[in-house]
Structures are given as structure tokens and as C-alpha cells.
Design a protein that fits this description.
This protein has a five-stranded mixed β-sheet with strand order 1-2-3-4-5. The protein has seven helices and five strands. The longest helix is centred in the last third of the chain and has 15 residues. By secondary structure, the chain is α+β, with helices and mostly antiparallel strands. Bound molecules: coenzyme A.
Length: about 200
Amino acid sequence: MKKANGCNPSNNDYEECYLFDPQILHDLEFENQKSASYKPEINLTNLGEGLTIRPLCISDYDKGYLSLLNQLTEVGDVSREQFEERFQLMKSQPNLYYTVVIEDTVMHRVVGTTTLVKEMHFIRQCGFRGRIEDVIVHSSYQGKQLGKLLVDALTLLSKRLGCYMVSLECDDRVVPFYSKFGYVKEEEHNYMLRRFIPK
Ligand SMILES: CC(C)(COP(=O)(O)OP(=O)(O)OC[C@H]1O[C@@H](n2cnc3c(N)ncnc32)[C@H](O)[C@@H]1OP(=O)(O)O)[C@@H](O)C(=O)NCCC(=O)NCCS
């Protein structure tokens, strides 16, 4: 197994160092605790031929990670240097950022991703709140249960990390998708935002 740490540019495995310890995914007990049903059965160690799920690595910059995100929203022109800097910054905040990717190891492409952010609060007895962000499966890989696996795993992770709740924002059309994992639309809650840069 590759190292969770050792994200020093002078190390040989710098490109492959993980954003967080991959053991956290292995310890999830996904089989017993998953929310959705899978037909055919897939899980975190058996996603289908050539597919693997793991924490984000620096080398994912070259495996299409940002162009995948670009299928979801505007990413901009992010240089490798900027990517590495942001990766290192996220990694330096221990246990707050959990970006997972699904890689097609034959094509060396990132084909799915999502991120769990664990926020720290004073409310709820100095509690943690989880937010699931940027859920995307490459258009050529949709319908293979990979989106379900990503959201199921990170929802489970948020619970395992002790978050008092986990939330996400989505369009009406994907509400049925997220309902599979127990997410509910609370009618009394409005989602408000103010954009500083136009959409
Ligand atoms: C939404 C998305 C992540 C789902 O991933 P996926 O790998 O295609 O979906 P899966 O194969 O894992 O899930 C299949 C199940 O979810 C349902 N589903 C898939 N996409 C759906 C959608 N857009 N709306 C409602 N249900 C959906 C399917 O009907 C299927 O149900 P079943 O298991 O009961 O048969 C993926 O389609 C995607 O990346 N879409 C574009 C980006 C996007 O909308 N992201 C969400 C931003 S909030």
C-alpha cells in the first residue's frame, strides 16, 4: 500500500502520496453499513474491472482530475503548481478534507470523484458538520453504480468521523439519487447564497 504521508517533493513517492490515509476507506465496513443497494454487487474493493477507489493524489492532475471536475462546473486554468499548492494546503489541515477518486487503472484516468469536507464548529458541543461536494462521474462511466458508491462511502465516512450531520446541495433532478442514501429535503430550510463571481 502506498504511503499516506511523505508528501515531500524530494521523496520518490511524492506524486503518489495521498490526501488522507487510505486505511480510513478500508476501515469503513462498507458491506455492512452501505445505504444503497447494488445490482450487481460492487463494493470499495471490487468496483469492476480495472477500477479502483482511493484518496486523491498529486499525480491525479495528469489523470484528468480537473477536466472531470470541469464536466460539473467551471474549474478555470489551474496550473500544476497551483494544484500542488492547494493539495498540500488541504493535506496540512489534518482530517478535514477527504477527496476520493475512482481511477480506471487501465486508462490511467480519474473517472469519478467527490469530496467530504469536515467542518469544525462550536455548536453541538464543539461538533463537526460534514459537507459532500463536487460529485461527478465521467459521462462514459455513468450508470455503473460508481456515483452511488462514491456518495454512499463518503456519507458513511462522515458518520464514522463523528459529524452531527452531513449535507449537500443539488438540483431537483438529482434529489431521487441522493434519497437513496437517506438525504432528505427539509422544506422549512432555504438554501441562500450570494455570488461574487457570476455563474
Ligand atoms: C449523478 C451522478 C453522480 C450519478 O452517478 P452514476 O454513476 O451515473 O449513477 P449510479 O450508476 O451510481 O446510480 C444509479 C442509480 O442512481 C439513479 N440515478 C443516476 N443518476 C441519476 C440522476 N441524475 N437523477 C436521479 N437518479 C439518478 C439511477 O436511476 C440508478 O438507480 P437504481 O440504483 O435504483 O437503479 C452522475 O450521473 C453524474 O456525475 N452526473 C453529472 C454531474 C452531477 O449531476 N452531479 C451531481 C451534482 S449535485
